[in-house]
Design goal:
This protein is of the alpha+beta class. It has four helices and five strands. A hairpin with a 6-residue loop joins β3 and β4. It starts with 5 loop residues before the first strand and ends with a helix.
Length: about 130
């Protein structure tokens, strides 16, 4: 689902239509020089790349949900991490666009409407009353 927005929820958020858990809205941080982001190549300054998850945690001060290793086998370093603020989820209230559409149809079938729709159809109600 192309996420148009994210919403903060105090607890694990679930889709309002199907009940699936919503995905965490994460940000990616890559370490190292700009010339090859996300990679650690022999000859790079090793201090630009954290060696442990704890070291990366200290640098970002956010909850790390995933990290990627890179570099030669004898000197592995963390090249990329995914961080989460602990409360923001993708999609706001729905896991997919289809679930959002299904929810809208359910509400419309039950007679729910927006204020704009109500106001735009007011003239029809006035004509019916006369």
């Amino acid at each position: 689902m192309a996420t148009l927005f994210s919403v903060k929820h105090p607890k694990q958020a679930h889709c309002r239509t199907c009940g699936k858990k919503l995905k965490k809205s994460v940000q990616y941080i890559e370490f190292g020089p700009d010339r090859h982001r996300g990679f650690y190549i022999e000859g790079d300054d090793p201090d630009a790349f954290p060696k442990t998850r704890e070291e990366a945690q200290r640098q970002t001060n956010q909850q790390i949900v995933h990290f990627k290793w890179g570099g030669p086998k004898h000197d592995r370093r963390i090249v990329r991490i995914s961080i989460w603020d602990g409360e923001t989820y993708q999609g706001g209230y729905f896991c997919t666009t289809q679930c959002a559409v299904d929810f809208a149809f359910l509400l419309a079938e039950k007679g729910h409407q927006t204020v704009k729709h109500r106001d735009s159809t007011a003239y029809q109600r006035i004509e019916q009353e006369t």
